[in-house]
Specification:
Blueprint: H1 3-6, H2 8-25, H3 30-49, H4 53-58, H5 61-86, E1 94-101, E2 106-107, E3 111-123, E4 126-129, E5 133-139, H6 142-145, E6 152-158, H7 173-179, E7 184-188, E8 193-195, H8 204-221, H9 226-237, H10 245-254, H11 264-277, H12 285-305, H13 310-327, H14 334-348, H15 356-377, H16 384-411, E9 413-415, H17 418-441, H18 446-471, E10 477-479, H19 484-503, H20 506-531, E11 534-538, E12 546-551, E13 554-559, H21 562-575, H22 586-589, E14 594-597, E15 600-604, E16 619-626, H23 634-640, E17 641-648, H24 654-666, E18 670-673, H25 674-677, E19 680-683
Parallel strand pairs: 5-7, 15-16, 16-17, 17-18
Antiparallel strand pairs: 1-3, 1-6, 2-3, 3-4, 3-5, 6-8, 9-10, 11-12, 11-19, 12-13, 14-15
Length: about 675
């Protein structure tokens, strides 16, 4: 029996995934979907009524094709419904809205953040049905802090569409939110909203978050605070609000960030503990069924405690299938179990496929299944302690292989000491989880719980100390960048070369090596493009002015705030293999607000530029940049300077931008507004 026959859910998942991905890049008409569905149903009927064995064999492909088409259409239609339900109405209109809180409140530096579902909008003194999900930021006060899932709110605000990628290589926030079914954002002052007296309907997520808050209160009760509390809350119940940026940076750079995201590791630990404690229930079929039932109940109770996050849900679902398969005295086909959990997760929410956690989770699980045993077999040992260490190392290496393309694509860094990190972090984090469970179980016994809390705190101190020390080791992080095409090539190389070692056939090896060649060619193409690139970029920033001069791979930047410039542009520089900028020549880039770069003349407008005088001969420039909140009068400005193109940055007010637009139109000057179109990129051609 081959792989496809042993893993039917792989084929089902592939069909469903195809429909989901096609929806993102292509638009199919309703008629096409209907015709394809009808054709698939007719093929199923034909296969069912076909009695002749010879004809059954000849047309055996028909049944599988029909199922593929139906699941493809299902994936496409699910995305269509999800997209329709998340489309926000109305946008950019100051109105009164009734909304329901749909996520736990998260504390930000200057506000409280939560997600809301739009219910109704007051239009011409009538309540009308409205649609969509949004992120709302509340001015900090006690009322906002106490909001719970299910609370109904009355808002007076204007919902806006979130910004897309305004700068080259920038993060597309709008696309990210859209993949999470969110289409709008709003900020509310304390006077812009109030909670209605409506009694919330029962919500399991609401109850889960209330229960989670009670567990967090127990941690605080025993004096666990600061960094220890932040890590404990994240590690055990998925509460990450207290994690500081420097702590996140340490865990990320050392390769331990995965332990702070409640997922398969944590659910696996719970599964192992409960399975061990219930190990005596396996004498007969009835006991096995009871054991599986209790394991599943414990798994979903843990998922409930952690707030029912998607990462925990998929892990709980997968281990539930494993438990059920064991109770039926069937050896669970692990590949089929993994694909089955992914299939059902995508049925409930097709956009999970674009979730970073979803991708990393399944990449890690599949990679561990494929590579862990072969790596462990390379180092045969008999000592139990050495065997445990070897297995831990082999799991770490296996997980890194599968997740490597995704971590490089999303985070542009590789933790060089990940093996050392996992040797320390996984045992300590496992101990922390055990002690946390012990603390919660003994919280009604003062003496015992105090001892457990003390041990728990020491374990957390040791964990944080170890991670920070590893982070500060020399060369702890290597920086890499991949574009989407390179990610696909790397995934293909890993997949097909792995397949070669299992099948020993030449064709997978040939495809894998071709993927490696393609990866190299794509990297060379990026380098080639950079070496033939000459451009000027004015970045989008609402506070500061950043002008980037790129001459092949040489890089110069003029900025009124260097830190912000690096934050905005560094991703673009890394992705395109451009040298980091030389900031030492900032003062020489613009002399008297004028620069000459590759024979292109650029001027910066200032408040005092030609305010009280008129030049006999206007200055001819290729590019005039109006930014840094300056507002020179257009009358004097254009009498003394004749630009081919005028660029107005985001710091300039809308009314002044409009004045400049009109002045440019009168003089037939090309006008560009960064606030409307994003960063200005001027490609220099010779």
């Amino acid at each position: 029996m081959n792989f496809l026959q042993r893993t039917p859910f792989f084929r089902l998942l592939l069909a469903l995934l195809s429909g989901i991905i096609v929806f993102r890049y292509f638009q199919l008409s309703n008629l096409t979907i209907i015709i394809a569905t009808v054709a698939a149903l007719l093929m199923l009927l034909f296969s069912y009524f076909l009695k002749n064995l010879t004809l059954q064999f000849r047309f055996r492909w028909m049944f599988g094709s029909a199922i593929f088409i139906l699941l493809f259409n299902l994936g496409y239609v699910l995305c269509l419904f999800s997209d329709t339900n998340s489309t926000f109405y109305p946008l950019n209109e100051q109105k009164t809205f009734r909304v329901t809180v749909s996520s736990a409140t998260m504390e930000k530096p200057k506000s409280y953040r939560c997600e809301v579902q739009l219910n109704k909008v007051l239009d011409q003194n009538k309540w009308k049905i409205a649609n969509g999900n949004a992120i709302v930021y509340f001015e900090k006060n006690d009322s906002a802090k106490k909001l719970l899932i299910g609370d109904e709110l009355m808002l007076r605000t204007k919902f806006k569409e979130p910004p897309g990628a305004e700068n080259p290589g920038g993060f597309n926030y709008a696309a990210y939110l859209k993949q999470n079914n969110i289409s709008a954002t709003a900020y509310l002052n304390a006077t812009d909203w109030y909670k209605t007296p409506t009694i919330p309907a029962f919500s399991i997520k609401r109850e889960a978050n209330i229960f989670r808050s009670k567990l967090l209160a127990i941690y605080e009760q025993y004096g666990i605070k600061d960094y220890e509390y932040a890590v404990l809350a994240a590690l055990t119940v998925g509460y990450t609000d207290e994690l500081s940026p420097d702590l996140r940076a340490s865990y990320s750079a050392s390769g331990a960030m995965h332990i702070l995201s409640v997922s398969g590791l944590h659910v696996g630990i719970v599964y192992v503990v409960i399975a061990f404690l219930l190990g005596f229930l396996k004498k007969n079929r009835m006991q096995l069924v009871l054991r599986a039932t209790l394991i599943v109940l414990f798994l979903w109770s843990y998922a409930f405690v952690t707030g029912l996050s998607p990462s925990v849900l998929r892990s709980a679902l997968m281990f539930s299938f494993v438990a059920i398969g064991t109770s039926l005295e069937r050896k669970s086909q692990i590949y089929n179990t993994v694909f089955m959990s992914a299939f059902f997760m995508l049925l409930t929410e097709p956009n999970y496929i674009y979730n970073i956690g979803f991708q990393l989770s399944y990449a890690a699980v599949l990679s561990i299944i494929i590579f862990q045993k072969p790596f462990a077999a390379l180092l045969p040992v008999r000592n139990k302690a050495l065997k445990w260490g070897r297995d831990l190392l082999s799991v770490s290496i296996a997980a890194q292989i599968g997740t490597l393309p995704f971590t490089l694509y999303y985070f542009q860094q590789f933790p060089n000491y990940f093996l050392l990190t996992n040797l320390v972090a996984i045992p300590l984090s496992t101990l922390v989880i055990y002690l946390a469970i012990g603390l919660l179980a003994t919280s009604f016994l003062p003496t015992i719980s105090t001892i457990v809390a003390m041990l728990l705190k020491w374990s957390l101190v040791a964990l944080n100390f170890s991670i920070v020390q590893i982070h500060h080791l020399p060369l702890s992080v290597s920086t890499f960048t991949l574009n989407f095409a390179q990610v696909l090539a790397m995934v293909g190389a890993i997949t097909f070369i792995s397949l070669y070692f299992y099948t020993k056939k030449a064709s997978p090896l040939l495809i894998g090596l071709t993927c490696i060649l393609l990866l190299s060619l794509l990297s060379l193409q990026t380098t080639y493009n950079t070496l033939h690139s000459e451009k000027i970029i004015v970045y989008a920033d609402s506070k500061y002015l950043h002008v980037n001069f790129i001459d092949k791979n040489r890089n110069y930047i003029y900025s009124t705030n260097n830190a912000e410039a690096w934050k905005i542009a560094s991703q673009y520089w890394k992705t395109n293999k451009i040298e980091l900028p030389d900031t030492t020549i900032k003062s020489t880039l613009f002399r008297n607000n004028y620069a000459n770069f590759l024979d292109k003349r650029i001027a910066l407008a200032t408040e005092q530029m030609w305010k009280s005088q008129t030049n006999s001969s206007p200055l001819e420039v290729d590019l005039l940049i109006i930014g840094n909140k300056t507002k020179p009068k257009a009358k004097y400005l254009f009498e003394n300077i004749h630009p081919k193109t005028v660029v107005v940055d985001k710091s300039i007010s809308p009314w002044y931008t409009e004045n400049i637009r009109k002045a440019c139109a009168e003089k037939s000057i090309t006008f560009y507004s960064i606030a409307e179109k994003g960063a200005y990129v001027y490609e220099i051609t010779h």
